[in-house]
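Quick illustration, no need to memorize.
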Amino acid sequence: MLRYLTAGESHGRSLVVIVEGLPAGLAVTSDQLGMELARRRLGYGRGPRMRFEADELVLTAGIRHGRTLGSPVAIEIKNSEWERKWTEEMSPNPGYPSKKLTKPRPGHADLAGMLKYGFDDARDVLERASARETAARVVAGALAKLLLAHLEIAVLSHVVQIGDVKTARTTIPFPEDLPRIDASEVRCLDPEVEALMIAEIKAAAKVGDSLGGSVEVVAHGVPVGLGSHVHWDRKLDSQLAGALMSIQAVKAVSIGAGIEVARRHGSTAHDAIQFDPTTGQYRRPTWLSGGIEGGISNGAPVVAEVWMKPLATLNRPVLETVDMATKESALSFKERTDVVAVPAMGVVAEAMTALVIANEATRKFGGDSVAEFTRNWRAYRDNLSATPSAVMDDRPLSEGEPVRVNDTSHD
């Protein structure tokens, strides 16, 4: 099985991620991982920190001459601001900070964390609770994506909504669409909606406010049979929902048609099963289930929508709080912040999705080396091909482009 652990604080010396369970022989370069980190910094409405805080990667263990060894992989992401600004404030040595942050910000972990751990300084909480930690997750997810590529699985995302502006697209993106998505300032495939989203962000920035929104993450090529119905923690949708909900500021996750399917009658809420005699394959005209039934992947694309709340740190502090030192009413303090981080959240959602699917793939196919891992996968795939009743196609039978899982135009 694949598992990972991150360590580090937002303004600390560095972030560290350890990934265990990668088979030996996986080709990895710092440039590949750096490209994923650069995608995390994309998006109109990001703060200045994204421009000057470059991600310097150090591959410290588990990789030799560009290939994994089968041992744990350790990677460090250095903080370029550490020596210039934070060596004293975030020093691990005995001492005291220059200033304590005693006015917890509503919507953050500040107050609950201070009370839980007995801290009198919000920085002891916010540094680890910060979304900066997701940089380490993106690196772990990049490794998972490299592994999944050997199984012809690709994971991507696109922005569906920012503020009140929502795309009207009724199709899910495919891997060939990713360059166009990343070329968009808000990672949206619809140019007209992109312009409206940017206008929405500009309006919020003008008054010092923030915006939330949602992204859709899609995994293509996921084979039948990942996950299981036998236990609650083996269900693929359970694992995926938990992983996506763990992203900072995410408040809701839906698989497939999500809450929309709950509004339908049962006669229109499920994906019909059809057989194509020319290919000997079962296929689906819709993907309402999001590629997962009974906790098991069914061969269709795995699709989830992820909702992020507006960022709680504002450029114009107006949120009421209490100074924990004096118990007097106050306004929450301001750290550097973005107007919106939904486009970047999509890249993190890709990482979490890739990690969940890669974990189940390593559980299913095993193997100490990439060669053994892919050989086991091919044997499983070939066996499914010999048993048509177990095969589902990645593209449905419906005419034209495949419908998005939450499309209701046919109701």
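DSSP finds twelve helices and 17 strands in the chain.
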